[in-house]
């Protein structure tokens, strides 16, 4: 187990209004597993992913990431934990436009102060894992959406994080690229990473080991029926 939430909720206060973004949730995220977090817009999916990713603190409850309790941890320690343990992948790839694929992948290692030569070897290895070695000198605009997302996955992987968190990683992709990217993420999970993916797209359920549905801030784990995950109203 890499993440454990125990009765965790998140309430935002805006003026006199309390917005319950996530109701009390208990959940574990395991290594070797792809967890899909699915639900409609505004249901609380990103809030749940942000809690798992130590980007926001819980309002109530207890949260452990990689064996460390987050509640009460200092912001600096939290930032270190994020850098060392978690890789993030976003909908819009967030690659730096004037940098090549390889330079983008190098970035987290530069931030960690890894020596140049070692950083380069690791970046090349990460690009190899996602099948992008032959495009390493290309700029993002010379790559398709699917290829850019594979570079973004390589960038998330290069620090060797135990946990990879993805927020709508396929929203900007066509069906073929969606399949390539999701198979890539599934392979990483099968090989021992913990991967959590937020989506509103039920097509992604077929790639997941486990599915959590979030509705009105309430998270429920879905059980497979006849070998498939099913969700109402889709
Ligand atoms: N920083 C914030 N301040 C106030 N309210 C917030 C904040 N972040 C999220 N919320 C509210 O919490 C609820 C859940 O938001 P969240 O972004 O987690 O939903 P979501 O399921 O990821 O939606 P989407 O798919 O549209 O991104 C929403 O009502 C949202 O307006």
UniProtKB/TrEMBL annotation:
GO MF annotation terms: ATP binding; ATP hydrolysis activity; transmembrane transporter activity
Gene3D superfamilies to which the protein is assigned, alphabetical: P-loop containing nucleotide triphosphate hydrolases
Q: Which UniProt keywords apply?
A: ATP-binding, Nucleotide-binding, Transport
Give the domain of life: Bacteria
What GO cellular component is one of the record's annotations? plasma membrane
Domain ABC transporter residues, every copy: 3-234
Family matches, as InterPro entries: AAA+_ATPase (IPR003593), ABC_transporter-like_ATP-bd (IPR003439), ABC_transporter-like_CS (IPR017871), ABC_transpr_LolD-like (IPR015854), MacB-like_ATP-bd (IPR017911), P-loop_NTPase (IPR027417)
What's one Pfam family here?
ABC_tran
| Family statement | Belongs to the ABC transporter superfamily. Macrolide exporter (TC 3.A.1.122) family.
What the entry lists under PANTHER family is as follows: ABC TRANSPORTER ABCH.1 (PTHR24220:SF86), IMPORT ATP-BINDING PROTEIN (PTHR24220)
Q: What is this protein called?
A: ABC transporter ATP-binding protein
- Organism for this UniProt entry: Xanthocytophaga agilis
